[in-house]
Design a protein that fits this description.
By secondary structure, the chain is mainly beta. 12% of the residues lie in helices and 67% in strands.
């Protein structure tokens, strides 16, 4: 066997060993939690109208209690329709504690509802700091706009 074949064989054996010895990476099973939230304030940033709709940029603040405990600040673009329905999207941060781990998370969300009657918000945590740096979570808040309600969250921590 020539030197090229010996080097190629050694390389193939090394690759095969690495593949066989590699351990699969597994994520922790998600945990379901929940609690209540209260809207605590808001600021109107801007508003404009088009085709009977009112587009509103809002900064809202709320408090989460339960599995998640902390303050959530929402930056929302809301489309208020003439029939009283609305939909919204945006980002939020939560300076909070989840399962005893504290930090700040960033999320993206969508929401829909009936003005002054009901809202449902779907959110996904996209980033975290400190104790929440390896948090993966999705959740749903439901309640009354400007009032409060309940939330559920499915989450896990990597590592």
């Amino acid at each position: 066997m020539g030197p090229f074949c010996k080097k190629t064989s050694a390389l193939l054996v090394s690759i095969a060993a690495a593949v066989l010895l590699a351990q699969p990476v597994s994520a922790a099973a998600p945990v379901t939690g929940g609690g209540a939230y209260d809207d605590t304030g808001g600021v109107l940033v801007s508003a404009r109208t088009a085709d009977g709709n009112i587009f509103v940029h809002l900064i809202l603040t709320g408090r989460l209690h339960g599995t998640v405990d902390g303050v959530r600040v929402v930056d929302a673009i809301t489309d208020l329709h003439p029939n009283g329905l609305f939909d919204a999207h945006g980002t939020a941060t939560c300076d909070c504690t989840v399962a005893g781990r504290s930090g700040t998370w960033s999320e993206r969300f969508t929401a829909s509802g009936i003005t002054n009657v009901s809202v449902v918000v779907h959110f996904t945590v996209v980033d975290g700091t400190q104790g929440l740096s390896n948090l993966h979570a999705v959740g749903i808040l439901s309640g009354v706009p400007g009032g409060g309600g309940t939330y559920s969250i499915d989450y896990h921590f990597d590592g």
